[in-house]
Amino acid sequence: MRDKVGLTLMFVMPILLALLITSIQISAFELVNNNKIKVLLLNKDKGSLSIDMLNKLEEVGRFELIEMKTLDPKTVGDDMNDRDAFVALIIPEGFSDKMTQKAQGAAGKALVEFGIESQVKNLAVLQMDSLTLYFHPVIQESFRRSVEGALKSVLQVMESKTMLDALYVSINGEKMPASFEQDMMANQTGVREQTTSHNGVRSIPNAAQHNVPAWTIFAMFFMVISLGGNIVKEKLSGSFVRLKILPTNFMLGLLSKQLIYLMVAMAQVFVIFSMGVYLFPHIGLPALNIPDDFWGMVAVSFICGWCAVSYALCIGVFAKTQEQANGFGAISVVILATVGGILVPSFAMPKSFQLIMNMSPLHWCLESYYGFFLEGGKLNQIMANVAPLLISIVVMQLIAFIGLKKKNLI
Question: DSSP secondary-structure letter at 343?
Answer without folding.
Answer: S
